Structure formats: structure tokens, C-alpha cells
Amino acid sequence: MITMTEIARLTNVSQPTVSRVLNGNQNVAAEIRERVLACAKEHNYQCNALAKGLQGSRTMLLGVLLTDISNSFFADLAKKLESEARRSGHSIILFNSDYDMDKEQAYLDVVRRYRVDGVLAAPILQEGSAWPECAHRLDIPVVVMTRRMEGVDSVYLDHTAASGQVARHLAERGYQRFLFIGKNYDMKYMGFYQSLDELGLADRLESMEYVDDRQLQEDLRAYFQQSGPRAGVFANNDICALRVLRLLRVLGVSVPQEAGVVGFDDTYMGPYLNPSLTSISQPTGQIAAEAVSRLLYRMDNPGQLPALDLALPAELVVRESS
């Protein structure tokens, strides 16, 4: 691969001038700039972004850290983040923590070594997470997506309000007992509980965590073997809701007659399931646009401005499963 020094030799231009041209400096004579750019194109010159970072220049790279790219919501978010980044001439480096806190910490170290210009992250934030401290220690701009982090720019869906929509919908559809599948300290659970409490139905709410399909099947079997009225089931994401629909079919529980099922994220598969899945729709395009815009702003304005706390509204998309 050709270097700046070799381009300088081939074009009879000084290496500092070549550097200015290739870094976009317009204070170079047009004839020289065209000669350098033509040579760079002919020899397929590739900028060493890591070396630029080590020299203190911008690498034009943004780190994107997501929790599970096998989830189509995060895959769609990554695609939209890449598109937004490209509008400003940036590329992304994608990392998948797979909800593993050790991986997450390791990738944050990689981000630091690569000296990316900024980080867009959907952190795990489990109990005991050191994420807020790590975000400040990176010493580059960080924007958190999909959840709120104290003291860090955050662009996210209002999970409490969104889950409240689910609770009211299930109650209006005549479901009289309620099941949440996920962690009971999650904001989705809290919003679901709070709205049921306002309706006088919180004492009819139970929860269970997903570990694996076998465990979930046994838990659902035990729950539906109890005699009781129609149950409204709220799964913390669409993948979990898909598992629930399949297992209810195995258990002989009819949907939506005996159980209503609602997911979260409104991923592409929802309309094509049988029954089609009711779900909370997240504005992934808006999340990506706002997050990248804020990150670019922080990169250009690194002062001590208050952290952004942008909670976006959700939409409940009602389909056959409820």
C-alpha cells in the first residue's frame, strides 16, 4: 500500500503538503491538490486511521457497542447508525457484547486503544455495572442509546410510558391477570406495574425471567395450570414474545382467547407471525439520528454542557396476538 512519502516522491510535492491535501486542507494550490489526489487514487491510497488517532487527529471512526446484534432491533439500529454516521463522513466499528459484562469491558478497552472519535453505546447496565464510571474514563464523547444513564448523554425510549400503554391495552381487552417476562427491576416492568397499580390491578401481576426455553415452558405450564381468568402476557422483547407464542401453542393455550401476548421493539417479524404480534414500536431512525447528532456536537463542543436526557415516545402497534 502506498504511503504519503511515496506520493510526495511521485508528485514532486513535499510530504507535509501531501498530508494537508489528503486531510482535506483547502489551502493548497488547485493544480497540486489535483495531482496529489490523482496519484492517491491511482495507487489506492488508504488512510491509516489508527495512526491519525495516535497523532491526535480525528480518525473519522465511531465506536458502536450493542448488546445483541442477533436481535433484529439492534441490527436495524446498527444499520441506521451507520447511515447517519456516513452523512458526516464517519465510519463505524461495531462491537457486540452479547449481554456479557466482561466482553463489554474488553470492548471499551479496544475502543480506547483505537482512539475512535466517539462512542455510541447500548450498555448492559446490570446491577453492579461500572458503565457510568467507564464512560467518563474513556475521555472521548459517549452517547448512550436505548436507556438512560445519569450524567451521560442519553437518547432512549420512555420505557415507563411505553409499558404503561401495554398495561392499559391488556386491561381494556378484558385480560384480568398479568404476567411479565423479564427482569422485575427493569423499567419495562416498573412501567407495567405502575399502570396496573393505577388501574387497581397490580395485585394480579406476576413475573418470571427467561433462562432457556425448557425453563420457560415449565414456568408457563405451571402458570396456566392455575385456574384463573384470561392472562395478559408482556414479554420484554419480540424474540422473547416469539418464544412465548410457540410455547403456548405447545401447551395448548389459545392466543388471544386465553392469553394475550405483547412484545417490545416491533421488529420486522411481528406482522408475519401467526397470530401476528402486538408490540411496542421503537423509533430506531430517530434514535440513531438524535444519538449521532449529539455525538458529533460533543466532538465539536467538548465543554461542560449538561448531559442530554432525551426520552422519545413509543407507539403500541396492535395486532392479532392481543
Description:
With 322 residues, the chain is an alpha/beta fold. Helix content is 44%, strand content 18%. Strands 2-1-3-4-5-11 form a six-stranded parallel sheet, sandwiched between helices. Helix 7 links the parallel strand 3 and strand 4 (142-145). Helix 1 (4-11) crosses helix 2 (15-22) and helix 8 crosses helix 9. The termini are far apart. The model has no long low-confidence stretch (mean pLDDT 88).
- The end-to-end distance, rounded to whole angstroms, is 59 Å
Shape: elongated
Q: In percent terms, what proportion of residues is strand? A: 15-25%
Sheet/helix structural class: alpha/beta
Question: Summarize this, please?
Answer:
The chain is of the alpha/beta class. The protein has helices at residues 4-11, 15-22, 30-42, 49-54, 72-87, 101-114, 131-137, 159-172, 187-198, 213-225, 238-251, 284-300, and strands at residues 61-66, 91-96, 118-121, 142-145, 153-157, 177-181, 205-208, 231-235, 259-265, 278-281, 309-312, 315-317.
What's the arrangement of secondary structure elements?
Elements: H1 4-11, H2 15-22, H3 30-42, H4 49-54, E1 61-66, H5 72-87, E2 91-96, H6 101-114, E3 118-121, H7 131-137, E4 142-145, E5 153-157, H8 159-172, E6 177-181, H9 187-198, E7 205-208, H10 213-225, E8 231-235, H11 238-251, E9 259-265, E10 278-281, H12 284-300, E11 309-312, E12 315-317
Parallel strand pairs: 1-2, 1-3, 3-4, 4-5, 5-11, 6-7, 6-8, 8-9, 9-10
Antiparallel strand pairs: 10-12
